[in-house]
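Homework help board

Subject: predicted structure for assignment chain

Our instructor gave us this sequence and asked us to write out the predicted structure in token form, then describe one feature. I got the tokens but I'm not sure how to describe them. Can anyone check?
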Amino acid sequence: MSQELSLHQRRRPPTVQELDGIPWLVRLLPAERERAVAAVVVGDANPGDYVCRVGRPVTYWFGVVQGLLKMNTDNADGASMTLAGLPPGGWFGEGTAVKREPYRYNVQALRKSLVAGLPIDTFHWLLDHSIGFNRFVMSQLNERLGQFIAVREIDRLTNPDLRVARNLAALFNPVLYPGVGEVLRITQQELAYLVGLSRQRVNEALAVLQDQGAIRVEYGGLRVLDLQALRVGQFLR
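My token output:
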């Protein structure tokens, strides 16, 4: 019986349209872009596939072209903590890639997703030669630090509506996830996985946020109407 190919074995060169979904390519000079495009690969991740696993060596810097991934860690007692949802346009793991250290987190596909990878040696070549690439990575690192600090705060929140609001605000971060825009394609069950609440409780929170005018629930996703309200959530305290 033949085994299903791994995500790494399913890698292939990206199409022109898929390259358009990689936000940092526009920051590169022509020669830098040519080198990067020649090295980038993409692969179809099925639901449940691991893109990164704790303890594995870093071989690529990864990004989401389509779909939705989850970054999480497992504590010693077996409890899992979600660090970030990763929607389209999001590139992640730059800190690990810079240090060439093993992963300290897992990244897993919540739905069928298209994942892009830049080989680690090309990543470091761009760091050494491209000012535009360096600025993009520095911006990522700065935003990611703020995101992880917010995750610790969210984890302590006892108000479920506020937890959902803050998690949604993180997914609509225009710097980290420029591919999202104003509409996030996500199901209530996927959001429940990211927030750590039941689907029913997430549905109730979304109704509250919609009544407050912060979001609008649409077919297949959510439209943000007031991002600042989601970030601050004063009406939910």
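Reply (TA_rk): Your tokens look well-formed. For the description, you could write something like this. The chain has a mean pLDDT of 89. That's the kind of observation they're looking for.
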